[in-house]
Amino acid sequence: MKLLSPILNIVLISFSISLTALGQNLTADYTAIDKIALAIPTDKTKKTQDIANYINANFSTDDEKARAIFIWTATNFEYDVENMFAINFNEKQEDKIARVLKTHKGICENYAAVFQDLCIKCGLNAHIVVGYTRQNGFTSFIPHGWCVVKVATKWQLVDPTWGSGYIENNKFVSKISNEFFKAIPESLIKTHMPFDPMWQLLDRPVSYRQFSDLTSAHTKDANIFHYIDSIAQFERQTEVERFETEIDRIEKNGINNAVIYDRLSKIKSFVEVSKKNEVISQQNEIVDIYNAAVTEFNEGTNDLNTFIEFRNKQFTPAKTDAHIQEMLTNAETKMRKAEKSIKAIFGKYDKLDVMIVTMEKSMKQANSILNEQKDFLKKYLTKGKIERKMMFIKTSRRG
Questions:
Q1: Is the separation of the CB atoms in 188 and 158 below 8 Å?
Q2: Which of 271, 291, 323 delimits the end of a domain?
Q3: Taking the complete model, does pTM exceed 0.85, yes or no?
Q4: Domain count of the chain?
Q5: Which domain does 324 fall in, by range?
Q6: What's the rounded Cα separation, in Å, for the pair 188 and 179?
Q7: pLDDT along the chain (399 residues), means of 10
Q8: What contacts 389, CB < 8 A, 6 or more positions away?
Q9: How far is CA 355 from CA 162, 239, 346, in A?
């Protein structure tokens, strides 16, 4: 009776990026923090939990921890130019992290995954952002991934991939770019367009068309967007609810290219499949309840039949009154439990309703027999030894 349906795992987006030479934009002196963060012993860098333990032991504030995570991630990995487009769609997040920690080579999805994982293990709230980029006036429609992290009470933009260096002559050049640590939203939007406008962290989001056309969104007639409230709502939502609201924001932001349509198509498919799977899961739960009720009812009727057989033998070999009463009580308890379960699921899964109606008829018949036995036992337990024997004689003559 178990209903089965394969859960469809949909890869929402692949990550890739073409790095270009970027200058540094130092807004704070992180020299001391960087020195400590990069001094972690090599044998403590095999797992993100060990790295996080080191960071937690050496830094106390959110800002220090976020910086330590950024500099460690941006410094310790080499951008994998050769495998820029070699995306493993079925690779789990933990496997992406384990692989880059082992090889020290990866693409933006690996940088972002490590950064987010370390943030979480250091007590910081962080999310991976997916979108696309623009460089040298050219919009790249190859999806890219970066991060947002909550430092103290403020959400900050961090791109550990672009902050790690650049590509020159098809080779990766390591060079820290601090402008991509706690990047200024108004500046990052010039090169990074998240699919979900919420992650622009702007009160007046830039539309996809404005991003492509190099025009400014900060005009008086631009709609005010309370991204802080939206993120707060996002934090309370289920995965499906998050994607549903993302769909709404994407559509309102003026879709104007194929990569956005592709993103939208994938998350719509994910939501659709997830909802179908949720329905199937609920149906399976109902089927499980039904099956458990059938089992419970069958056990109850078996106990009832055992009691009747014992009664037909005039309760021999002898048992105490309490034991005899318990036999019938156990039967009733199981039957009542089954009835309650069946009533709770009637009307919730139409394919089962016919079966439930049939089962309820069986329960009604069993209850009638149960009540007869209860009436008999109630009288029996009030009688003396001789009168009890006479009850069996009278029952036999009626038969």
A1: no
A2: 271
A3: no
A4: 2
A5: 279-398
A6: 9
A7: 31 41 57 97 95 98 98 96 71 90 93 97 97 88 93 96 92 95 96 97 94 67 81 96 97 93 94 95 96 96 96 94 96 96 95 94 96 96 93 60
A8: 314
A9: 61, 35, 10
